Amino acid sequence: METGTGSRLKMVNEVSYRLEIFKMTLRSYAKDRKSWILEIFLLFPLFVIFIITRRYADEDYRETAQFLGEEAAKQQALGDIMDLTIYLYMVILAIFVTIVLGTSLLGTEKNDKTIYYILTRPIHRYEIPLQKFPAYLIFSTSLFIVPLTLLHMTMMSVVPGSNAFTGIGLVPKLIFIALLCNAAYGSIFMFIGLILKRPLLVALIIGFAGNLLTSLIFSGSTQAQTTIPYHLEVIGKSFVSSGQIATMETFNTALTSVLTLISLTAFFVALTSMKIQKQDFE
Amino acid sequence: MRTIVRLENVSKWFGEVVAVNNLTCDLKGGITGFLGPNGAGKTTTLKMINGIIAPNLGRVTVFGEDPWDNMELRKKIGVVFEMGNLYDWMTGEDFVRTMGRLSGLRSEDLDKGVERALKIANLYEAKNRRLKGYSHGMRQKIKISQAIVHDPQILILDEPLGGLDPISRRYISDLIRDWEKEGKDLIMSSHVLHEVEAVAKKIVLLFQGKLLAQGSIEAIRRLIDERPHTIKVKIDKPKEFVKEILEYDFISSVVFLDKDSLIVRTKNPEEFYTVFPQIVANKGFEVEFMGVTDESLEAVFKYLTMRTKRTSM
Questions:
Q1: Is residue B18 less than 8 Å (CB to CB) from chain A?
Q2: pLDDT single digits (tens) A238-277
Q3: Between β-strands B31-35 and B202-207, what pairing exists: parallel, antiparallel or unpaired?
Q4: Which domains does chain B have, with CATH numbers?
Q5: Given this model, what pLDDT does residue B225 score?
Q6: Which chain A residues touch B99 with a CB distance below 8 Å?
Q7: Could you give the 3-state DSSP secondary structure of residue B301?
Q8: Is A270 exposed, middle or buried (0-12, 13-18, 19+ CB in 10 A)?
Q9: Secondary structure of chain A in HEC code, one letter for each residue
Q10: DSSP strand pairing (B3-14 vs B57-62)
Q11: If you measure CA to CA, which chain B residue comes closest to A28?
Q12: B52 and A21: CB-CB below 8 Å?
């Protein structure tokens, strides 16, 4: 008869070998030159932001501090950081990152036929996206940690009465937004990478013309609520009291937006799992 | 002898292309070779046997079980596909170890399995090198390592000798024979009769997705040998090689394709395959590629197809 320890050990083995694809995916991202090019791509705008901040924004913040107090200047800077995070990093740069990393998640394995090595192992097919996607999410989000932290420090360092670390509590919130953004776009692009041979064009259309596509079907608040950028804006707005984002019109709470993005992600990951479970790999 | 694989009225098509057409056959233990020209349906059949693709019609069973998404069965099968890249960012050991882990091996079993698989493929010394830097022969051997790391009962090899230099070719042929000596089963595919004949006693002859013949290869071999064979050779010193090979009367002609590739026509391929490695070794030539061109074999298959049609009329 199997002892309790023996059966526990067997269970641990059973779980740990099934995490092998997760570990392998993380390692493949880390070893891929493309990943580090993406990191440079995300760091590059900081040079421009650094120059602009020192040339124009610091004057703004000094004026605000002079007339409304240092706290108001701080809030203004935090609003600007959120604006840049949403409108530059999430709505433009994150789309490139998620397209590159998301479509390659299964697409590259399928095109290179390295997926055969996994398909011939004792692992259920549906488990492949379930293991690969978390690895993608961790890696893609980690790419944003340094740029968003530096963005915050660059902006805050010119605010009168503040230093680079003032309001640093905003950074985890920015990273949380990046996580949701990467999850939502990545899950869609992972699915596209699996079903299409050349997914790039379709991914670019979905990424950059999502608003236009949904406006063909919906209108008003429904149209807004069917786009990923809108939900990111709603979440971003809930974290700051100043900036362009603080003035936008919203139709639901931040919690609803968080749940919407999580549901969208779960839907596409599940769809990918279902698809791969039935798919022939010629 | 026990049946390891059974294909019952199996058909598979991709769009409008029928890759396998109503194929029925039993594969017994030992070494079985699937023989046929490109497009005969060999790879598709092998993929159905290990559950990578499912048949549109018919039934495939391995050890009496459906291979599709069958976890227990996958532990008993090792697969090497001709096409496909490797995880080039990994080292040889890393690759075999990862595949061992994916097969469920742990701790001591994994260490032993990896060491054994690398030694069998003669890659133990190169285990710390990146796969990116491996030669074609080494890549083929590391694919075999990853397929045997979990000590499967059946090894499935798709064109294992394709495009290999004579030394790697011989090494893998020996490895296949040793596999059978251990009492295990092996299914391989090839479009070169001599490759299959060198290791397998039983063959399944496929052409255009259909079964032409199954069983002994002697009769078919005779038919093939009666026809001239064309063999493509890519070598570093083609002119010196031609000078050497034309000494033998079984060579009908030699045609240069470009500065380092040529086509050799022979009426006796067996003698050619015996003499070729000797010349290469004696003269120190470097062979980049040596293999039969499809046209000659295809002609034989067409002939056999016509013969089958005539006898069935």
A1: no
A2: 999 888 899 988 899 999 999 999 999 999 999 999 999 9
A3: parallel
A4: 3-222 (3.40.50.300), 227-312 (3.30.70.100)
A5: 62
A6: 117, 121
A7: helix
A8: middle
A9: CCCHHHHHHHHHHHHHHHCHHHHHHHHHHHHCHHHHHHHHHHHCHHHHHHHHHHHHHHHHHHHHHHHHCHHHHHHHHHHHHHHHHHHHHHHHHHHHHHHHHHHHHHHHHHHHCCHHHHHCCCCCCCHHHHHHHHHHHHHHHHHHHHHHHHHHHHHHCCCCCCCCCCCCCHHHHHHHHHHHHHHHHHHHHHHHHHHCCCCHHHHHHHHHCHHHHHHCCCCHHHHHHCCHHHHHHHHHHHHCCCCHHHHCCCCCCHHHHHHHHHHHHHHHHHHHHHHHHHCCCC
A10: antiparallel
A11: B89
A12: no
Parse chain A into domains and list their residue ranges.
22-278
Q: Where are the strands (E) in chain B, listed by range?
A: 3-14, 17-28, 31-35, 57-62, 77-80, 154-158, 185-190, 202-207, 210-215, 229-235, 251-256, 261-266, 287-292
Say which range, B68-77, B108-117, B123-132, B190-199, has the weakest mean pLDDT: B190-199
Write the CA distances from A229 to A245, A246, A258, B20, B39, integer angstroms: 12, 15, 12, 48, 48
- B251-265 pLDDT, tens digit per residue, is 888 888 888 889 888
Mean pLDDT of B283-303: 72
pLDDT of residue B290: 82
Residue B27 — φ and ψ, nearest 5°? -110, 125
* A105, burial (CB in 10 Å: exposed 0-12, middle 13-18, buried 19+): buried
Report angle CA A264, A101, A194 to the nearest 5 degrees. Answer: 65
Query: How many CA atoms lie within 13 Å of B138's alpha carbon, on the beta-carbon side?
Result: 17
Q: Could B104 and A281 be called an inter-chain contact, meaning their C-beta atoms sit closer than 8 Å?
A: no
DSSP secondary structure letter of residue B67: -
Q: Which two tokens stand for residue B313?
A: 């009329």
Q: For A104-162, how does the pLDDT look when each residue is reduced to its tens digit (9 = 90+)?
A: 999 999 999 999 999 999 999 999 999 999 999 999 999 999 999 999 999 999 999 99
Query: Chain B 76-95, CB below 8 Å of chain A: which residues?
Result: 77-79, 81, 83-87, 89
pLDDT reading at B226 higher than 70:
no
Query: Which residue is it, tokens 């034309």?
Result: B246
